[in-house]
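So, can you check what follows?
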Amino acid sequence: MDILIILTPNFNIAATMGFIDPFRAANYLDGDAIFHWHFASLDGGPVPASNGASMLTDPLADHDRKFDLVLVSSSWTPERQFNAAMFSALRRHAHRGSVMGGLDTGAFLLAKAGLLKDAKATVHYEHIDAMIELFPDTEVTEDLFVFDGKRISCCGGGAAVDFALHILRQACDDRLANMAARYVFQQNLRPEGAQQNPGMIEPLGRAAPALVRDAIKLMEQHLEDPLTISDISDQLGVSPRRLDRHFEKSIGKGPATYYRDIRLDRARGLVTQTDMPLATVAVAAGFNSQAHFSKSYKSRFGLAPRDDRVQGRIPFEYRAWPMHRKVGRHDTP
């Protein structure tokens, strides 16, 4: 199996290496080079990763031939890679019949190249809202990874290992996939359809009470047209006071503050990942007043939306502002 991995500046190197390692393990364990991979970028040379490391690549033009899989590994600011040469290369590979994949935000480039029309895809959850707004003809999901015929995608992070093991399993068999999974210490292979944020159990094993989970679900369903805390309490059959106590105990902030914060988090994705007018972003996050939106945004993220549109497109390690400022429990939503 011949794999071409196209890197863009500020790609996630951990996800990219996580994707490759099961194939390396399979080659070693099988005693044969079943899988071959090549790293390329538009111009070749070293490509910086989001953590400050870099990786040497070949010019993309040097690999203008048929591959079984072409995977775009992108993370921060995928829109900066929107250019004719990249799209032309991606379309050529697709025309040759290659499976086209995206890792982390790689699906943005595939969609912009016109390769995800009426297809299903996923990206890192931080970029989901932007993907939905920019590409309405793509079915965007919050799955860890998606296999939709010759169009596949993965949200990145540790899910890249699961993603690769499913590809390995399809290309070879369960025996080799199991051996490779054991070799890289992937003890449980997450299935297709597994969610990025399943919501039931926290990674360290603690779970929020059912009441809090149900309240959060209602909040997430009403980001653009927010409910009052009294409305949420009524729907759940509890008093606002009881709901507040449960939120404070399990999350460390009241429901009003939590609700405001997730609306602002949605807004930040749209501010930093799209060129939507800020007034439109405010409405999408449930704020009727632009001034109130800007003030709340600056309180949470440390800078105004207009400034974050520039700063937020810089990888976090190089940013001058913290991603989230600490706020008090009594801040008004």
Q: What stands out?
A: Residues 2-183 form a domain with the Rossmann fold fold (CATH 3.40.50.880).
